[in-house]
Amino acid sequence: MPSTSPYLDTDFSFDRPGVLAKAGVLDSRKARIMGSATGHYRAQTVHAGLQYFDCNLQFPEPLKIDKVLPQSLCIVQLFDGTWQHTVDGKLNRYTPGQLHLLGLGESLEAQDQLPADSHARMAGVRIAGHYLQELVEDEAQLLPLLALTAEGMRFDQLSQCPAVSRLLQQLYLSPYTGGLRRLHCESLSLAIVLELARHLIGPAQPSHTPDRGLRDLAIEARRLLDAQLSAPPTAASLARQLGVGETTLRRAFRKAFGRPILQYVREQRLELARRLLLERRWQVSQVAYQVGYANPANFCHAYKAHFGHPPGSE
């Protein structure tokens, strides 16, 4: 992030109320923070001018943060809880379960203010104004992104952009650590930028190329499935999205990967569940919900059938 940004790269977890001013979330020279919290917060610059962050924090006392935000674009998914701030005198409220955009065309004063006993679980990406300008210079089709930071402040809720929401969910649940996590965060953060630009540009015209290879079709279907394992599309909706018949898609997928779409999704869900369990950060029921099982008992049965032992033994 450029030096004008108050946000710092940090990673902390408080088991008991800790003073946020000492946690390294914000540069004390550019912001003032009052209040304490329990839970986790992490932020990482994944590319010059591009920072990923997420948190799951509870605030036992009122939270107040005064800061000056630079020209930038922030993409935020509030999973649950409450978040609100005032920017340039205007109050912005974030809706749980929705995706939001905050575009700033210049440096503006901002204040976060939350009541005691509130909480916030969210993830997001901050894009510096200078990085947006670089992107547009390289690719003019990304101009709609820069337009979000044209002047003043712009605050929008995006209700029809599920691809970006899924990518933020994947980042929040990333099973990796160390260098692999950094690569994962960088690739998905850049994918968020591209998906947002695609959303702003509008839907692309469907391809009707008659000689499209079946293997390429299967690989694209697998990519789409991997991006939304917790709530995968049906074979019919996936076929419509790819512009082919459902029978053609099923045949191409089985030929390329040796198993039906449904079996592939089940196996990938369980492999992801195993990686999450080995981190020992969540209970079995929590992992079950994260990988798309509404009933933990069904998850345990499927896990044992696949790996030969129950998930609790991990």
UniProtKB/TrEMBL annotation:
DNA-binding in keyword set: yes
Domain HTH araC/xylS-type stretches: 219-314
InterPro entries (alphabetical): Homeodomain-like_sf (IPR009057), HTH_AraC (IPR018060), HTH_AraC-typ_CS (IPR018062), PchR_regulatory_protein (IPR053142)
This protein's UniProt keywords: DNA-binding, Transcription, Transcription regulation
Pfam families: HTH_18
Highest taxon, organism lineage: Bacteria
Official protein name in the record: AraC family transcriptional regulator
Organism per entry: Pseudomonas promysalinigenes
